[in-house]
Amino acid sequence: MPAFFRFRWGWALMILALLLVGGCGKGKGSGPAPVQLQLPPPPEGETAAQNKQEKGQIQVVLYFADPSGNYLVPEKRPLPKVEGLARATVEELIKGPAPGSPNLPTIPKGTVLRDINVRPDGLCRVDFSRELIKNHSGGSLGESLTVYSIVNTLTQFPTIKQVQILVEGQLVPTIAGHVDVSSAMTRNESLIKP
Questions:
Q1: pLDDT (0 to 100) of residue 144
Q2: How far is Cα 134 from Cα 86, in angstroms, rounded to an integer?
Q3: CA–CA distance, 127 with 107 (Å, rounded to integer)
Q4: How far apart are the first and last CA of the chain?
Q5: Does residue 167 sit in helix, strand or coil?
Q6: What angle do CA 49, 50, 54 make, to 5 degrees?
Q7: Is 72:149 a contact under the CB 8 Å cutoff?
Q8: Burial class (CB in 10 A: 0-12, 13-18, 19+), 125
Q9: Kind and range of the H or E run holding 74
Q10: Backbone angles phi, psi at 128, to 5 degrees
Q11: How far apart are CA 8 and CA 92, in angstroms?
């Protein structure tokens, strides 16, 4: 084959390779990128180095009822740094206070986290099993502690501004008849023990 034809084939192959590589990007129909959950900032008075747990772990804050059942109290817990950090955090909240803790659980026994979704606008939709309502002990204060233990635990993450509670994939008016959960809720620190 003459040198002229080999030269043309070389260019043709190079152009074909560039076209193939250029066409491998995301198309328009690939949907929005998933929201990356930001980690909570270190507690006041602590530097990131002081707050750092073992490599690959993060310390989150879970809110449980105090021993009197009148306020929410924070409990720090180390969790692995995982992609589904919001899900892992709520699952820890469902497990209840640490063994030996005087604090009381806020999520009724048997409740399961069905789904959790953090949207780019800062809304976190968290879907629980029917036991959240069915097994709730009732009372306006007890219901408030349940609702805001969920909301305050999730809003520690800077990417979550509001929380929408669902039960079995549906919006519900209340959990136990006292607190309106039919719309998204923001953090409420008035229930946290001073």
A1: 98
A2: 24
A3: 13
A4: 87
A5: strand
A6: 75
A7: yes
A8: middle
A9: strand 72-80
A10: -110, 165
A11: 64
pLDDT at 98 over 50: yes
- 152 exposed, middle or buried (CB, 10 Å; 0-12, 13-18, 19+)? buried
What is the distance between the alpha carbons of residues 187 and 163, in angstroms, rounded to a whole number? 9
Residue-wise pLDDT tens digits, 161-177 = 999 999 999 999 999 99
Lowest mean pLDDT among 54-58, 116-120, 162-166: 54-58
When the pLDDT of each residue in the chain is averaged and rounded to a whole number, the result is 83
CA 76 – CA 62 distance, rounded (Å): 6
Distances (CA, A) of 5 to 16, 48, 152: 16, 63, 71
Residue 39 DSSP one-character state: P
Q: How far apart are CA 95 and CA 22, in angstroms?
A: 49
- Are the C-beta atoms of residues 133 and 176 closer than 8 Å to each other? yes
Helices assigned H by DSSP within the chain: 3-22, 48-51, 85-95, 131-134, 140-154
Model pLDDT for residues 5-15, shown as the tens digit of each residue:
444 545 554 44
Q: What is the largest CA-CA distance in the chain?
A: 93
